[in-house]
């Protein structure tokens, strides 16, 4: 059956972010739809942000494109250009290597949900606002030292 | 600016389907979001189906995964398992090579819209209901003869 029963797909708020950097994503509940549905050309996540939650720390990938489409509720897209409200049906694309860190923040009093499409990180990821960097699949300080 | 202004992205109902096989997709109006936004790891289309329109002829790809999420309106997903109503927020995945032909049909009286994610067809595509086949990037009859 191609239609997915989201309720049967495990939902997680797990994160590899170290220490307090994990706090903004504690209310980010995601389902990995690609492994659950037998596709692997790209990754697809169904993400619910509880009030106050962020999609991630603000970041950009050196080598992986990302795309999001809002399904319900309201989020604020923060990037180098400023802040942009995202409503259901709104789409945003984040080209690899563009150096423009981005994050979705739920500043509303209700859940919001979106679909995110991308690929597993195989390149460095940059976090312009915090002393964190992703390289070789692990988070380190910007000077390369371990957490 | 990562948020896409859909109104500025060209909309097309073009199809390569030969003859009358093109009729069900005349009311399929799509925007190619990936080239418009600078991403190329995967393709993303924003598709509006007018009342009566189909997303495609029923088909399955040998080598490309597909994923859709409904944004508005209502469509009927037809595949080997039967018919399934798709409403806003509903997701469906179509794994490559599964042999299960699929199509979204708008049988309602209003437009519906969805996002489709995939990759450009580089393998054969099979159309179980009609005498058409995609191979080497062109449509032929099932016996390999030209239209």
TrEMBL record, chains A, B:
Residues 46-117 form the Cupin type-2 domain. Coiled coil: none annotated. SUPFAM superfamilies: RmlC-like cupins. It comes from the Bacteria. It holds the Pfam family Cupin_2. Gene3D superfamilies: Jelly Rolls. GO terms for molecular function: metal ion binding. Keywords: Metal-binding. This is Cupin domain-containing protein. It comes from Stakelama marina. The lineage of its organism: Bacteria, Pseudomonadati, Pseudomonadota, Alphaproteobacteria, Sphingomonadales.
């Amino acid at each position: 059956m191609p239609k997915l029963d989201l309720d049967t797909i495990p939902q997680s708020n797990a994160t590899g972010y170290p220490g307090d950097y994990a706090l903004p994503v504690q209310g980010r509940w995601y389902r990995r739809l690609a492994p659950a549905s037998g596709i692997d050309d790209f990754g697809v996540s169904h993400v619910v942000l509880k009030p106050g939650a962020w999609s991630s720390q603000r970041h950009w990938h050196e080598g992986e494109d990302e795309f999001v489409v809002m399904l319900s509720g309201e989020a604020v897209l923060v990037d180098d250009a400023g802040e942009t409200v995202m409503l259901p049906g709104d789409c945003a694309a984040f080209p690899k290597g563009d150096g423009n860190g981005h994050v979705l923040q739920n500043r509303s009093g209700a859940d919001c949900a979106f679909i995110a499409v991308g690929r597993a990180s195989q390149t460095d990821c940059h976090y312009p606002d915090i002393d964190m960097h992703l390289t070789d699949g692990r988070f380190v300080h910007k000077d390369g030292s371990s957490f």
